[in-house]
Amino acid sequence: MIDQKTLAYINLYGVLGTLENLCELAPEAGSILTNKKPISIGFEVKGGPSATITFKNGKCRMEQGCAKCDVKLPFSSCEKFNGLIDGTTTPIPSKGFHHISFLLKDFTKLTDLLNKYMRPEPADLEDEDFFRISTTLMMYTISVAIAQIGNNDEIGKFSAQQMVDGEIAFSIKDGPAATIRVKNHRLLAIKKPSDAPRAIMEFSSIKLARDLFDGKVNAIACVGSGDIVMKGMISMLDNLNRILDRVALYLA
Fold this sequence. Notes:
globular, alpha+beta
C-alpha cells in the first residue's frame, strides 16, 4: 500500500527537490533558466508538505514553507499534488498570474528535463556523462525518499523508532554521497557526505548502484560479495534496509 501523504512528501522534497541538483549537474538546465530576476514558486499542500523553489542565475534552491513566493500553487489534498507529478492534475495559481509564462514554459521544460534523467531511455544511458548525472540524481532522490518514508509511512516509522541517534553515510565509492541523520527517531537527508557516521552503506561503483536502483541485481547478494559495504551500527543499517525496501514502491 502507498500512503498518499508520504508520497506527497517524497514528490515535493525528493523529486522536485532534485531540481537543485539537476541545475548543478546538467548543462542543459542552465540554458533553460534564463530569467535575470529571481522567481520563486511555492507549493502548498493541504494536510501535507509546503515548500518554495527559487530560480536565479541558472540555479534553484528549495526551502520549506511558502510564505514568501512569487507564484503560489495550492493543492486541496495530497492526492491532487501527486497528480501534478504524474501529469493528471493541472494546478491553478492563487498568486502570481503575471509569472504564468515562466511556470508554463521554463518550469515545465525543467521538469521535463528532470524526467528525462530520472526515467531515461536505455540509449541515453549509453552516454557516460548522462549515466553519471542520471544515477547521481537518483541517488539523491532515494536518500530523501528514505527520510520521508521513515517520517511519514507507518511501516517506515516503525523502523525509524528502532534507530538510535546518529548519522548514516549513504554513498557510492568515488561518487555522490548523502547523509541520513537520525535524531529522536526522525530522519533528515543531507545531500553531502557525513563527517562522523555511526554506520556506513557504500556501493562499490556507480554502475553497481545503478543496477541496484533499477532492480537488476540482488542487494543481499551484493552484500555477500562485498559490492555493498555495510559497517558500523548494525541496528541502524538493518532498519535503513527495511525503509529502503519501501522506496522502490513509492518511486516505481
